[in-house]
Design goal:
single chain; alpha+beta; 25% strand; globular; DUF600 domain-containing protein
Length: 147
């Protein structure tokens, strides 16, 4: 039986969450995934809530109980794998004739086993002179820190 669009779309999102969660060996309370696709520019990034603190992937050792040996190669590997998942998502949208989101924000609450997702379909930064996807990502990180 062929999979329906929603099933494939959710599977890809779950794979994105797994990439982030696996990196911190399931020590996070929440995993936040940011994905952007504007004019062929692909972005995947992740940050966490660990012990009540919001941290980016490069700062997880500041709060992890079981420290990781920070390895840039491993971090880039995760981010690259996220881009591959985004490529898969784009291909899926095209195959099913669905619009491709320009931005996806996923928030996975580990304790509640719940996923909150927010999709945008309009350009977020490509039409501005002073913003790029990393600015939008960091704005979200800061917004979560200030909650």
């Amino acid at each position: 039986m062929a999979k329906v669009f929603e099933d494939v779309f959710m599977e890809i999102q779950a794979d994105m969450i797994s990439l982030g969660l696996d990196y911190v060996e399931s020590q996070a309370e929440k995993v936040f995934i940011y994905v952007s696709y504007e004019e062929s520019a692909l972005t995947f990034n992740v940050f966490y809530q660990i012990k009540g603190k919001i941290v980016t992937i490069s700062k997880v050792n500041e709060v992890l109980e079981n420290k990781k040996i920070f390895n840039k190669k491993e971090v880039f590997s995760i981010l690259d794998a996220g881009i591959q998942e985004l490529d898969r998502l784009i291909d899926t949208c095209e195959a099913y004739g669905r619009p491709i989101p320009t931005e996806i924000r996923l928030t996975y609450d580990v304790r509640a086993n719940s996923l909150k997702s927010d999709y945008q379909y309009e350009p977020g930064y490509i039409n501005t002179k002073d913003l790029d996807s990393s600015d939008i990502f960091m704005e979200w990180v800061e917004a979560e820190k200030n909650k």
